[in-house]
Inverse folding.
């Protein structure tokens, strides 16, 4: 927040916000050390946040808000799917940036090329997806019982 907010925070255009996120993560990488894998982490996170930021901006438009108000289940399923994808890209970024370095990229690719690796990721994806649906349902129930609207 000490860098992101002075750069304009969320009160700027989508592209400027993405640039600000890139600046912040690059600064964090520099702060920790001048190592290639940390820059890869910073730039992968920035790249992976692009779809999330785009869909968040899209979700704030009137037609999409209206659609989701009429189709709460659809909203839950789409948001849970996005959260699940976000979980996966964070795993990739952190594996490259902190755990294994740039050598993780061929390793992750190799895992996805194997049938057992794809099955493992599919099971993981389904479990995370279901947990996201459950979390959203619990939060909605909590909001409804406290009288707060979404």
């Amino acid at each position: 927040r000490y860098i992101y907010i002075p750069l304009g925070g969320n009160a700027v255009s989508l592209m400027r916000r993405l640039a600000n996120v890139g600046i912040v993560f690059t600064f964090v990488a520099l702060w920790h050390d001048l190592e290639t894998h940390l820059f890869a982490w910073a730039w992968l996170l920035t790249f992976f946040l692009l779809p999330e930021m785009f869909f968040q901006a899209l979700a704030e438009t009137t037609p999409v808000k209206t659609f989701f108000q009429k189709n709460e289940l659809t909203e839950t399923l789409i948001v849970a799917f996005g959260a699940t994808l976000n979980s996966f890209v964070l795993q990739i970024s952190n594996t490259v940036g902190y755990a294994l370095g740039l050598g993780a990229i061929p390793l992750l690719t190799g895992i996805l090329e194997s049938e057992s690796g794809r099955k493992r990721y599919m099971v993981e994806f389904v479990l995370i997806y279901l947990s996201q649906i459950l979390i959203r349902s619990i939060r909605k129930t909590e909001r409804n019982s406290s009288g707060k609207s979404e």
Q: What stands out?
A: Residues 39 and 52 are 20 Å apart (CA to CA). Residues 115-146 form the longest helix (32 residues).
